[in-house]
Amino acid sequence: MSQTVTVEVIKAVPAVLWVAFAPLVYFTLRSALIPQLGRLNSVKTPMLELGFAEQLLDEAAAKSQVGTPPSAAVRRRGPTAGTGRSSRSGN
Questions:
Q1: Best exposed site among 25, 30, 47, 71 by fewest CB in 10 Å?
Q2: What is the pTM of this model?
Q3: Distances from the Cα of 13 to the Cαs of 8, 19, 26, 80, 90, in angstroms?
Q4: For residues 31 and 25, what is the distance between their CA atoms, to the nearest angstrom?
Q5: What pLDDT, on the 0 to 100 scale, is given for residue 61?
Q6: What is the pLDDT of residue 20?
Q7: Alpha carbon distance 89, 87 (integer Å)
């Protein structure tokens, strides 16, 4: 190989290794990360900050006079989740 080709290959190797490393880390840690996503309250990056109002919504719903509100987790799953009923009209 010429020296120019060798230099270009060496420059490309880190990018290829990151592409291979990221899925490896994701699939290795997936079972530990997914249960923790429910506890996520906010995301902060240097350019962006996001906050989730799930707890505030639950507190406001609890204070309302319209019976016991479903939790945010139940609202995410939908009204028929866990009841064994299908949302289709024929079942």
A1: 47
A2: 0.39
A3: 9, 10, 20, 50, 56
A4: 11
A5: 72
A6: 93
A7: 6
For tokens 């028929």, name the residue: 80
- Residue 18 DSSP SS3: helix
Give dist(CA 84, CA 87) in Å, integer: 10
- Cα angle 70, 86, 58 (rounded to 5 degrees) comes to 10
Which pLDDT does position 17 carry in this prediction? 94
List the end-to-end C-alpha distance of the chain, in Å, as a whole number: 67
Q: Please choose, from the candidates 79, 73, 74, 80, the residue with its C-alpha nearest in 3D space to the C-alpha of residue 35.
A: 73
Give the type of residue at 71: S
What amino acid occupies position 52? F
